[in-house]
Specification:
alpha+beta; four-stranded mixed beta sheet; two-stranded antiparallel sheet; elongated
């Protein structure tokens, strides 16, 4: 509890005596996470992990500790996992492997891989947003029979050219002036 001074953190998720220091692995057992969190009862002889995405402590069904040299009891608190050191072995091995890979520029390191995936997702989202923006812009400015859309496009074009946009009456007058005069003769036979 002294390592991160958990007793000085203002929080409203649990009582002060239940809010304790934890040193846990992440879900994939790649890294260590030091965190102040509410103590959780771990049931079923599994090692706990800290879920970074959900900010919670869970037990790892893929990491049983009942067969460890110092096996964990069927029920224990998450903050006492340090008593069962074999729960940390995979993360220790992974950390050593990750450090070697980082020095060699290997992209199989979980953190680096996560950021690559994040960059790809962001690129796709930006491409989709840009495409949607272009489709909407084309739809609005595409010549249509609707006079309202023509007015909007005319206003946009006029603003881009630095001219004041025509009002509906001015546009009607301009359209009528550009149309050839047609006369119809009525015969009275």
């Amino acid at each position: 509890m002294e390592l991160k001074k958990c007793n000085f953190i203002i929080q409203n998720c649990t009582t002060l005596d239940n809010f304790e220091y934890h040193c846990l692995t992440n879900k994939f057992q790649h890294i260590f996470v030091e965190v102040c969190a509410p103590n959780k009862m771990i049931v079923g002889q599994n090692c706990p992990y800290y879920d970074v995405q959900h900010n919670s402590i869970n037990y790892n069904l893929n990491q049983p500790c009942k067969e460890h040299i110092k096996s964990c009891p069927s029920v224990y608190t998450s903050s006492s996992v340090y008593l069962y050191q074999e729960c940390y072995n995979e993360a220790r091995n992974s950390k050593a492997h990750s450090n070697d890979n980082l020095r060699n520029g290997d992209s199989s390191v979980p953190g680096k891989q996560y950021f690559l995936q994040l960059q790809i997702k962001i690129s796709w989202i930006l491409a989709i947003l840009f495409t949607l923006f272009m489709v909407v812009l084309i739809y609005i400015c595409w010549p249509k029979k609707s006079s309202r859309l023509k007015q909007m496009c005319n206003a946009i074009q006029q603003r881009m050219l630095g001219k004041s946009p025509l009002t509906h009456d001015e546009e009607s007058e301009e359209l009528n002036a550009n149309q050839p005069e047609t006369t119809t003769e009525v015969s009275t036979d």
